[in-house]
Amino acid sequence: VRSIAVKEDPARLRPSDVPVLVGDAAKARKAVGWAPEIPFERTLRDLLGYWRQRLAGVRS
User: What average pLDDT does the chain have?
Assistant: First the structure.
């Protein structure tokens, strides 16, 4: 596994941007019995695959 450095470009940040946003589905689980159907790890893999494919098309 490679380490990837993430660098923010201050020029691209908006004054209303939230520095850190953390979600919690506990209220939905408690109120309506909601549970995710897709594991978080799969979501990350799918997103990574999507962006790799999209960027590969830009480079060709």
Answer: 90
